[in-house]
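Lab notebook: predicted structure, single chain.

Context: the supervisor wants predicted structures on file for every construct in the current expression panel, including those that have not yet been purified. This is the next one on the list. No modifications to the sequence; it matches the entry in the shared construct table.
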Amino acid sequence: MPIQCSAGCEKNAVLKRPKTGDALCKECFFHAFEEEVHHTITAAKLFVPGDYVAVAASGGKDSTVLAYIMKLLNDRYSYGLKLVLLSVDEGITGYRDDSLETVKRNEQQYGIPLKVVSYEELYGWTMDRIVQQTGRRSNCTFCGVFRRQALDRGAALLGVDKIVTGHNADDIAETVLMNILRGDVARLQRCTAIVTGSEGAISRSKPFKYTYEKEIVMYAYFKRLDYFSTECIYSPNAYRGHARAFLKDLEKVRPTSIIDVIHSGESFSIREGVKLPTQSLCERCGHVSSQAVCKACVLLEGLNKGKPRLGLGKSSKVDEHMAQESKASPSTAPTAQGSVDSSSSNPHSAHSNILKSVHNLNF
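Prediction complete. Output recorded below exactly as produced.
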């Protein structure tokens, strides 16, 4: 027997929202999804009229839906934003080259211009070459550090005011769990912030902070959006996968676990007397860093000198090495390339499993 839409429109429901359990027709689901994102944007005052905003675009479901929603809400509510797609080419053959083709189609479909920056242009390395040097154990560390900085550098090249990323509620909850498991107090304090970026840096915001990953997939599926769904070939060994598996198990028992973890992260406070790192500028490349030399420059020096594990050891040993190198040859120290001054992170979701759950939620 057909179930009527719980929004009261008298149409038959076609799906059950993972976030709320409401049975909705497609149109009411679209409206609820879009209005919730609009509320997140307006409640947090993410933009002001006239902002030039870069949408971090990978071609995956999150960034594709984000680009579509930003265009739709900008037109519907007259945000007054100028939008541009910003993509990072990490140099992963058979993955990123294919996903960038999706982004190029999105450029035409949504009428939003596209800018692509690459690791090879900025750092002189591709992820394929990095993995050849490091193996697959720590490749996500290199990619995450370089990607964050590459987005900042691309945004600076464009001269944008703000960056928006497709980090969703699942991503943020996973990050909270990861920082708890690692005992990373500094990151735990700021990982739930909807806007990040220190003074002088281009701010980043997360319009999907409270949006479930499953609902993003459902929205893309029912809207028939053009997106790329293959996982990164280097992602299976990522530490985030353990936090993701744990969170999915919690969600099966308690669907609100995702939002509950985020709210818990928002409520964490640091006890008095705990020293937190202060952010300044990297003395080599000028990028924002909590150390004298930023992580990207440390990793890059290790690659260029045939010591790819340099930036993966204890910070005290890294600091000692970098200090010795600076004394030995201060004028020749390698820096991140590029003329100016990155999930999300580049989260690697089990897309096929989520899409199966979309079909299972249909009536």
